[in-house]
Amino acid sequence: xxxxxxxxxxxxxxxxLDSEILLLLKKRIELAKRxxxxxxxxxxxxxxxxxxxxxxxxxxxxxxxxxxxxxxxxRIFQEIISTCERVQIGVKVAFLGPSGTFCEQxxxxxxxxxxxxxxxxxxxDVFRAVLGEExxxxxxxxxxxxxxxxxxxxxxxxxxxLCVCGETELQIRHNLLAKQGTKxxxxxxxxxxxQAFAQCRRFLEENLPHAEKIxxxxxxxxxxxxxxxxQAAIGTELAAKIYNVEILAKNIEDKPNNFTRFFILSHKDYxxxxxxxxxxxxxxxxxxxALYRAMxxxxxxKLNLTRIExxxxxxxxxxxxxxxxxxxxxxxxxxxxxxxxxxxxxxxxKVIGSYPKxx
Length: 359
Description:
Helix content is about 40%, strand content about 25%. The mean pLDDT is about 90. With about 350 residues, the protein is of the alpha/beta class.
């Protein structure tokens, strides 16, 4: 057999294997549909992060045993899981747009590529979309490791009846984007969000000291606005793909350890997984030791606090509510005890939700 014949025979074998893979994928999707129907009957959430983690762990372990690249196998199985979830319930996910934002990247990171993604103009709009059942889930930023909390998200969590059913974390990577063929030394205008400009100050001073900086509402909007070869934007890799522009320089941020945490909104929170967090809002009496006694509810039970922050109560000058995250699920016995204890020591207590820790 000559080399050309051997190549064609190998290709035929690959085609045959591809057909077998598709048949197996069809069978898996059919089984996923059955599971989805059972979950609906039992009123269980379609997306089960604990089960996902177990499937991915088993797949990567088996990949290692047979000599396959673990990270590649993990990505393939994430897409399979995402596809199965979509056929179970046609999931719609709202995110803070426009398309190409870090928020959209976080949504893809959490849910995969199978859901229908809906871009909304403001954080308010994302909350309204989930409340009005235009979307099953919403993805909104809640805090950044450099800039602190997103106050609007915190305020809306207080006012809204929505729950937090998940969280995801995204490393913020900024890129200089422009039309194909643009040279950095030709750029006269750079568009971006004020926060992106602040986080890329050193790169801009060294490489584009004379370029005019034009502030816009989001990094994605900045990429949308590029019109000519003398213009550039600071934006995401996802935005570069969506708007078909070139990445002139990658990872131009001053500080690489820049992460944003996003909350996943829904009408109910998540069932216990064994690796959970709970978020609450509460207020205490305005007298000495009140906050100390509130914190003791968690310290005495050795519950680890991961965040605490105060926010002013609108319309009540110099009065505050506290936002607190702690490790554990609200259904865990120790957590239940702590929340009951806190309820007795506070003026107001709202459990926003319990959810799996970010993967």
